[in-house]
């Protein structure tokens, strides 16, 4: 089969496209004919060597896939050949990466693709959707009527979290990094949308939520906790899921006086069982067209190096004004 792999960590050019042996499913695994995969920031960090994650070389990257079952192991009970499925949480913990024509996935990690939903759409939603759902519902336990602020709402996770918060009945403040992204956030239903580089955003925020924000989702790699804590309501909840190298100052006094809570979220720590409720919600909402994802770049798998360069330029270097997901057809 064809696959994308690396023999060493480094820049996008280390990604190769070539032949590797076909995998054979174990008793509890399904052999998946992959139709679509996506690129996530974690793929860039691991490929470059910035984050440990390569277990052996050659290493196949990729956390997510969408495709169809072509064979099942002897103990598989939930799926059969021909079923359309998606998965996230791969390429880690001994599970194979997804950038290949065929992948073996334990059935515990697989979810059915709803009728009428494309492989590109569901794979684009997979990791970012699970992240957004866990942040809002497992960590922050958002409730109807609360005010949710999403810093970085124009990004893939942020834009999905915006939609989910609205579906939960929350008021949403969307802060994004460009006027185009601000416009998109308004179209997705944000009650207030502003460019976070504009000083007026913070003044407007105080007027919009005079008692403070109940839930703050922070997607920035350099969080400003002084500002965050100052904007929170009493017993508010903050969730961070970026900024591995960040070491910002932290206002301990104002934080505890408000009875605040701070959660860190790394989806790679989650088990298949923990991801299942998020996957079910994603399937339900995408099937009824209540949840959408923008695909910014659609490329063939053979152009994985280009896809990684695009993601790296955006995530690491802050270049480019495109927004959405990078999806590769297999």
Q: What can you see in these coordinates?
A:
The chain is α/β, with parallel strands linked by helices and 330 residues long. The protein folds into two domains: 2-113 and 294-329, Medium-chain alcohol dehydrogenases, catalytic domain (Quinone Oxidoreductase, Chain A, domain 1, Alpha-Beta Complex); 129-267, NAD(P)-binding Rossmann-like Domain (Rossmann fold, 3-Layer(aba) Sandwich). It is built from nine helices and 15 strands. It has helices at 41-48, 119-139, 156-167, 179-187, 200-208, 225-231, 252-257, 272-287, 304-315, and strands at 2-5, 16-19, 29-39, 65-72, 84-87, 102-106, 110-112, 147-151, 171-176, 192-195, 213-218, 232-240, 261-264, 295-300, 325-329. Strands 3, 4, 5, 6, 7, 14 and 15 form a seven-stranded mixed beta sheet that branches. A six-stranded parallel beta sheet has the order 10-9-8-11-12-13, with helices on both faces. A two-stranded antiparallel ribbon has the order 1-2. It is globular, with a radius of gyration of 20 Å. The model has no long low-confidence stretch (mean pLDDT 96).
């Amino acid at each position: 089969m064809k696959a994308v792999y690396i023999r060493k960590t480094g820049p996008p050019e280390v990604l190769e496209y070539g032949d590797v042996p076909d995998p054979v499913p174990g008793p509890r695994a399904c052999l998946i004919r992959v139709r679509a995969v996506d690129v996530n920031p974690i793929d860039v960090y691991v490929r470059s060597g910035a984050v440990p994650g390569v277990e052996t070389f050659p290493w196949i990257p990729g956390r997510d896939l969408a495709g169809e079952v072509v064979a099942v192991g002897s103990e598989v009970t939930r799926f059969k050949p021909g079923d359309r499925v998606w998965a996230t949480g791969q390429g880690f913990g001994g599970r194979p990466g997804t950038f290949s024509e065929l992948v073996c996935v334990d059935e515990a990690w697989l979810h059915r693709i709803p009728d009428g939903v494309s492989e590109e759409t569901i794979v684009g939603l997979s990791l970012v959707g699970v992240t957004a759902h866990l942040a809002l519902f497992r960590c922050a336990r958002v409730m109807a009527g609360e005010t949710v602020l999403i810093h970085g709402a124009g990004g893939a996770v942020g834009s999905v979290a915006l939609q989910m918060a609205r579906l939960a009945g929350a008021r949403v403040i969307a802060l994004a990094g460009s006027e185009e992204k601000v416009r998109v956030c308004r179209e997705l239903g944000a009650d207030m949308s502003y460019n976070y580089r504009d000083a007026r955003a913070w003044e407007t925020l105080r007027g919009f939520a005079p008692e403070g924000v109940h839930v703050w989702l922070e997607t920035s790699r350099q969080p400003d906790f002084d500002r965050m804590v100052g904007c929170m309501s009493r017993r508010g909840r903050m969730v961070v899921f970026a900024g591995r190298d960040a070491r910002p100052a932290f206002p301990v006094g104002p934080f505890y006086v408000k009875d605040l809570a701070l959660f860190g979220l790394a989806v790679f720590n989650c088990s298949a069982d923990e991801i299942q409720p998020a996957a079910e919600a994603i399937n339900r909402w995408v099937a009824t067209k209540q949840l959408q994802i923008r695909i910014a770049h659609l490329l063939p798998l053979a152009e994985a190096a280009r896809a990684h360069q695009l993601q790296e330029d955006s995530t690491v270097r802050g270049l480019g004004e495109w927004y959405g997901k990078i999806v590769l057809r297999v």
